[in-house]
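ESCALATION

Customer reports they have been waiting on this structure for their group meeting. Please prioritize. Original submission:
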Amino acid sequence: MAAKKKASKKPAKKKSTRKPSAAFMRPMQISAALGAVIGNGPFPRTEVTKKLWAYIKRNGLQDSKNRRNINADDKLIGVFGGKKQVSMFEMTKLVSKHLK
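Update from on-call: job pushed to the front of the queue and completed.
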């Protein structure tokens, strides 16, 4: 007769509810150049990023060959410091200069 193996049950892990960092959720003043793109008013960093991506997608500004690059239109050139094309990683660095 074969011995039956007992199935060992691992205790269920508790799902940790992530709380957003207070620094990211604090409303920040935005520059006039960035305000022309996403609207005026203090926004948290997370909301600035969401609105900026909505603008980029609505206007089809992602590069068709390399989707990581953003092609600037007239409004975004002011935000990107005069550059016509930036990578999405460089974009966050350039946008942070417009937040106080």
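Sent to customer with the following note: The chain has five helices and two strands.
Escalation resolved.
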